[in-house]
Amino acid sequence: MKNTENFDDIIFENRNKAYGAYYLRKNYSNYLTRAMVIGSSCIILLFGGAFTYNKYIVPKLAQNNSNDGTWVILPPPTEPPIEIPEVTPPPPPERVIEQQASIKFLPPIPVDNNDVIIETPPPDPKDIEGKIISSISTEGLETDLLIPPPVAPEITKKIDLDEPDEGKVFVAVEQQPQFPDGDKALYKFLSENIHYPQAAARVNVSGKVYIKFVVEKDGSIGNVEVTKGIGFGCDEEAVRVIKLMPKWTPGKQNGKAVRVYYNMPVVYRLE
């Protein structure tokens, strides 16, 4: 006797075959084949319909919609351009020149041949009010307020440069003070005279100490103060060296020597 049992029969032996799982597994291959056939048919119909439409229907529609069998492509409708009317600017208003009214009144004119003098009778005093006397009579504004032409003010005091205040300290002047022989000599002086404080060297302190001082009229240095320091003896050493500097070329204002503030950074850098 031929054994017809398959793998599903062996698995579902002694189990409830009417539950549904046995039936689905037994007919799985049939369902799969049927699904593949239906899916392939749908794909073939889709591509076949598109091919048929482009091959036969589109040319036929084009032939029916044209006069000579060619496809007519109409351009999209365009809106007519909007005409902007030209606006003519209004003419500028006529300038009205206001003029004070005048009345004619000429002095007597002598005649050479005869000693007869032609006189023009003077105008009535009522007519002169609000008008000026002229060789002709004109219409205009009648007013007693006559605006005289502008007159330059009279200079009654001599203008000269004031003497600079003896005690004033300038921040900026026409000619700045300068170290003898220029800035290179200044940097050389600082590098040769500044000693790095031991406290700053031990903790590896470096930076800039900003010093402010006054260059006096004779070039000497005064009022030395620290505006920003770094401590560890660097500030005091910078002040000491600044006070040791020789006399500077003083600053000048209006050609005269004046007292001038000067700011200088002293740089500390460990090699």
TrEMBL record:
Keyword Glycoprotein: no
Main location: membrane
Gene Ontology biological process terms in this record: protein transport; siderophore transport; transmembrane transport
Gene3D superfamilies to which the protein is assigned, alphabetical: 3.30.1150.10
UniProt-listed Pfam families: TonB_C
InterPro entries given in the database record: TonB (IPR003538), TonB-dependent_transducer (IPR051045), TonB/TolA_C (IPR006260), TonB_C (IPR037682)
Molecular functions per Gene Ontology: energy transducer activity
Residue ranges occupied by any TonB C-terminal domain in the UniProt entry: 181-271
Membrane topology: Single-pass membrane protein
Residue stretches in coiled coil: none
Annotated keywords: Cell inner membrane, Cell membrane, Membrane, Protein transport, Transmembrane, Transmembrane helix, Transport
GO CC field: outer membrane-bounded periplasmic space; plasma membrane protein complex
Subcellular location: Cell inner membrane
Residues that span the membrane, as ranges: 31-53
NCBIfam families referenced in this protein's UniProt entry, alphabetically: tonB_Cterm (TIGR01352)
Family per record: Belongs to the TonB family.
Protein name per the record: Energy transducer TonB
